[in-house]
TrEMBL record:
InterPro entries: GH, Glyco_hydro_1. It holds the Pfam family Glyco_hydro_1. Keywords: Signal. It comes from Apiospora hydei. Transmembrane segments: none annotated. It comes from the Eukaryota. PANTHER family: BETA-1,4-GLUCOSIDASE (EUROFUNG), GLYCOSYL HYDROLASE. The lineage of its organism: Eukaryota, Fungi, Dikarya, Ascomycota, Pezizomycotina. This is Beta-glucosidase. Belongs to the glycosyl hydrolase 1 family.
Length: 610
C-alpha cells in the first residue's frame, strides 16, 4: 500500500526525532537564548541593599481595548448568492411549550402542528427552561510565573477559543429549533444522561460571552451552528427558520464588532432527529462509538443543502468553515464514512468554485495519538500506525492526498463504500488545512491474537481499534497528569504528533481544540478554589510551548490553536468535566474567569509577533 508506506516512513522520522526532543539522561536543556550581559550560566549575581517597604498593589486589569473588525469580506453577500440555493422559503415557529394548546394547522406539512410533533416524538423527560441572566465582569490577578523561552507565534498564527452549540446554547425548543441527537441520547439511546436542557444559556447570553472573550483579547471564536435551528425539518425543500438565521447573523456581526473572527462548524454531533425516523435501521459494524445518522439515505444531500444555506448567508463574513466535528466518533458504518467525506468535498467545491469564497474550508478530526509501547519493536510501531490510520487516514487520505482508504479501515469495516478514480480525483485536496483535536496520547501495543483477528471479530472487546491502549509506558510512569476525562491529559508526544500530521498529510495543521478538565475540580467546595486552576495553566503553557518548538525547531506549519473551552459546559451527560477557562454558576449562570484564562492569553500575547 502506497499510503501505508508513506505513513511508516514518516513514523520512522518522527520516532527518530523524538529521541532528540527529550533526552533521557538528566535535566532537559533549556531552549532559552535569553541573556543579560553574557549568559546567566556563568554570571555572578550582584547583591545589594535597598530600603524595604511593602510595594504590593492589588492588580486590577481593565479590559483590553477592543478594536472592531475585521472589515474584510471573504465572499459576496447573500443577495448575490441566493441563486445558488433557489426557492428558499423562510418561516418562524417560535418556542415549544408542552402545555400549550395543540396547533390546528395539521394539514400544513411545515406548520406549527408538524413542528410540535417532532418535539413530542423526542419525548423529553422533565423538560424545563429558564430565562435570561446577567453576568458581572470580575478580573483576577495575573500570573507571575511564565517560562523564559524565546520563541514567538508567527504573525498569522490564529489563537482562539472554541465551543459547540449543544454544549452551551440551551434554548433547545425555542425560536423554531427542533430536537437533535444531543437531546435524544437522553432518552435511552445509551450515551449519557443530561441533568437538564439548559447548558450555559449561551443562546441568550451570547453577547455577554463574546464581550467577556473580547475583553481578554481573544481574536478568534470557533462555534457551531445547529442544523435544527436553520432547517427545523432538516431536508431540502423545507422552510428556513427566520429566527435561527437572524440569531447567527447577529452573533456573527456582534463577534466582528468586538474584534473577533467567527469560525463556523456546520455539524458538531447534533444531527437532526429526522435522521432517526423510521424506516431507518443502521447496518454493519459501528466505526466510532455513536450513530450520527450519516448513513441515512437522505443525509448526504440534506447536509449539503443545509451547508449551502448557511454558507450563502454568512460566507461574506465568516472566513473559516468546518464541515464536520470529529466525524469518526459518530460514523455508524462504512456508508456513514462515505457520506461524510463526499458531503464534505461537495461543500468544499461549492465554497471555492460556486461562492468563490476567499476563506478556508476544513474538517476537525479526533485521535488521541497512538505511540508504540516500544518504538524499537516493529509490531508496536505497526499497532500505533494501525490505530492512527484507522482514525485519521480513513478521512485524511482521500481528502488531503486523493488516496484510497487505509488498510486499517478496510480490514475493520468491510461494508465500506469503495472509492474509484473519479471519486478520489473529486475528493483530493478538499481541505485547506488539517484540523485536529489532540487531547492526549495513548501508548499502544498489538492484541495478543493479532490485529487482523480482532478486526474481523465484532465481539472482540478491542474492536474497532484493535490495539491495547495504556496510559503509562514500560517505565511504569503515566504519560501525563490525571484529568477528570480522557484519563490523562498531556502535551507529552504532542510535538511528535504535530510532526506526524504535517509530514503525512502535508497541509498546515490547526489545533482546533485543546484543553484540560482539572481532576475533581467540580468537587471544589469553594468557587475561589475553582478559579485558582494552576494545573490547567501549566497544561496550557506546556502545550503551547511544545507547539512553538514544533514550529521553530521542526519546521512544522501549525497555523492556529483553539482552547477548549471558553467556559465550563455540558460534556454530553454532565457538568463534572470542567474543561472551561471560565466557571459557570449553574444557578445564576454567572461566568467568572479562571486564572488559567489569564495565563493563557498572557502567554500568547507576550509571544505573538507584531
Ligand atoms: C549590563 O551592562 C550594562 C552596561 O554595561 C550595565 O549598565 C548593567 O547594569 C548590566 N546589567 C547587569 C544585570 O549586569
Ligand atoms: C426526572 O425527574 C425525576 C424527579 O426529579 C427524577 O427522578 C428523574 O430521574 C428525572 N429523569 C431524568 C431523565 O432526568
Ligand atoms: C429495525 O430493526 C429492529 C430490530 O432489529 C426491527 O425490529 C425493526 O423491524 C426494524 N425496522 C425497520 C423499519 O426495518
Ligand atoms: C492530489 O492533488 C495533488 C495536488 O494537485 C497532486 O499533486 C496529487 O498527485 C493528487 N493525488 C492523486 C492521487 O492524484
Ligand atoms: C465512481 O463511483 C461513483 C459513485 O461514487 C459513480 O457515480 C461513478 O460513475 C464511478 N465512476 C467510475 C469511472 O467508475
Ligand atoms: C471473537 O471475540 C470474542 C470475545 O473475545 C470471542 O469469544 C470469540 O471467540 C471471538 N471469535 C473468533 C472467531 O475469534
Ligand atoms: C501500567 O498501568 C497498568 C494499569 O495500572 C499496570 O497494570 C501496569 O503494570 C503498568 N505498567 C507498568 C510497566 O508499570
Ligand atoms: C470554603 O470556604 C469557607 C469559608 O472561607 C471555609 O470555612 C471552608 O473551610 C472552605 N472549604 C474548603 C474545602 O476549603
Ligand atoms: C452560585 O450562585 C449562588 C447564588 O448566588 C450561590 O449561592 C452559590 O454558592 C453559587 N455556586 C457556586 C458553586 O459558587
Amino acid at each position: 500500500m502506497r499510503s501505508a508506506a508513506i505513513l511508516v516512513s514518516s513514523w520512522a522520522t518522527a520516532a527518530l526525532a523524538q529521541q532528540v526532543y527529550a533526552p533521557a539522561d538528566g535535566p532537559v536543556v533549556r531552549p532559552t537564548k535569553c541573556s543579560v550581559n553574557g549568559s546567566y550560566a556563568t554570571a555572578t549575581p550582584i547583591y545589594s541593599f535597598t530600603p524595604f517597604s511593602f510595594t504590593q498593589t492589588e492588580t486590577m486589569r481593565t479590559a483590553t481595548s477592543v478594536i472592531p473588525g475585521p472589515t474584510t469580506t471573504y465572499a459576496p453577500p447573500y443577495e448575490s448568492l441566493s441563486h445558488l440555493v433557489p426557492d428558499l422559503a423562510t418561516t418562524t415557529w417560535g418556542n415549544w411549550d408542552p402545555n400549550a394548546a395543540a396547533a390546528t394547522d395539521s394539514a400544513d406539512p411545515y406548520g406549527q402542528a408538524a413542528w410540535s410533533a417532532i418535539w413530542e416524538r423526542a419525548n423529553l423527560a422533565n423538560f424545563t427552561e429558564r430565562g435570561m441572566y446577567s453576568t458581572t465582569l470580575v478580573l483576577p490577578p495575573p500570573s507571575y510565573f511564565q517560562p523564559q523561552d524565546s520563541y514567538y507565534f508567527p504573525k498569522d498564527f490564529e489563537f482562539g477559543v472554541a465551543g459547540s452549540a449543544s454544549q452551551i446554547e440551551g434554548a433547545i425548543a425555542d425560536e423554531g429549533r427542533t430536537p437533535t441527537l444531543m437531546e435524544i441520547i437522553t432518552i435511552g439511546r445509551g450515551e449519557g444522561d443530561p441533568k437538564d436542557y439548559i447548558t450555559n444559556e449561551n443562546y441568550y447570553l451570547y453577547k455577554q460571552d463574546i464581550e467577556r472573550l473580547a475583553a481578554m483579547g481573544v481574536k478568534y471564536y470557533s462555534f457551531s451552528i445547529p442544523w435544527a435551528r436553520i432547517l427545523p425539518f432538516a431536508l431540502e425543500g423545507s422552510p428556513v427558520n427566520k429566527q435561527g438565521l437572524d440569531h447567527y447573523e447577529d452573533l456573527i456581526d456582534f463577534a466582528i464588532a468586538k474584534g473577533m473572527e467567527p469560525h463556523v462548524t456546520l455539524i458538531h454531533f447534533d444531527t437532526p432527529l429526522q435522521f432517526y425516523a423510521d424506516p431507518y435501521n443502521r447496518t454493519g459494524p459501528t466505526v466510532g462509538r455513536g450513530d450520527g445518522g450519516y448513513s441515512h439515505p437522505e443525509f448526504q444531500d440534506s447536509f449539503v443543502h443545509y451547508g449551502k444555506v448557511v454558507m450563502t448567508h454568512f460566507a461574506d463574513r465568516v472566513p473559516v468553515w468546518y464541515t464536520f466535528n470529529e466525524p469518526l466518533l459518530y460514523c455508524e458504518n462504512g456508508k456513514a464514512v462515505d457520506a461524510v467525506i463526499k458531503s464534505h468535498a461537495r461543500l468544499y467545491h461549492f465554497y471555492h468554485e460556486e461562492i468563490q469564497g476567499a476563506g478556508r474550508v476544513s474538517i476537525k478530526f479526533n485521535d488521541n495519538f497512538g505511540v508504540p509501547q516500544d518504538p524499537a519493536k516493529a509490531e508496536d510501531v505497526e499497532a500505533a500506525n494501525h490505530f492512527n490510520e484507522f482514525q485519521l487516514a480513513t478521512f485524511a487520505n482521500p481528502i488531503f492526498l486523493g488516496q484510497d482508504y487505509p488498510e486499517a479501515f478496510k480490514m475493520t469495516i468491510p461494508d465500506y463504500v469503495p472509492l474509484n478514480e473519479t471519486d478520489l480525483a473529486y475528493l483530493n485536496g478538499t481541505a485547506d488545512f488539517l484540523g485536529i483535536d489532540p487531547y492526549t496520547a495513548t501508548v499502544v501495543s498489538p492484541p495478543s491474537g493479532g490485529i487482523a483477528a480482532c478486526a474481523a471479530n465484532l465481539s472482540d472487546p478491542l474492536f474497532p481499534y484493535c490495539v491495547n491502549q495504556y496510559t503509562n509506558t514500560t517505565t511504569g510512569w503515566n504519560i501525563g497528569y490525571r484529568s477528570e476525562s480522557y484519563v490523562y491529559m498531556t502535551p507529552t508526544y504532542l510535538r511528535t504528533y504535530l510532526n506526524y500530521l504535517w509530514n503525512t498529510w502535508r497541509h498546515p495543521v490547526v489545533i482546533t481544540e485543546f484543553g484540560f478538565p482539572v481532576f475533581h475540580e467540580a468537587e471544589a467546595e469553594n468557587l475561589s478554589d475553582q478559579l485558582f486552576d494552576q494545573p490547567r495553566s501549566d497544561y496550557y503553557v506546556q502545550f503551547l510551548s511544545e507547539t512553538l518548538k514544533a514550529i521553530w525547531e521542526d519546521g512544522v506549519h501549525v497555523a492556529g490553536a483553539f482552547a477548549w473551552s471558553f467556559a465550563d459546559n455540558w460534556e454530553f451527560g454532565d457538568y463534572d468535566q470542567h474543561f472551561g477557562i471560565q466557571t459557570v454558576n449553574r444557578t445564576t449562570m454567572e461566568r467568572r474567569y479562571k486564572k488559567s484564562f489569564f495565563d493563557l492569553v498572557d502567554f500568547v500575547a507576550a509571544r505573538t509577533q507584531k
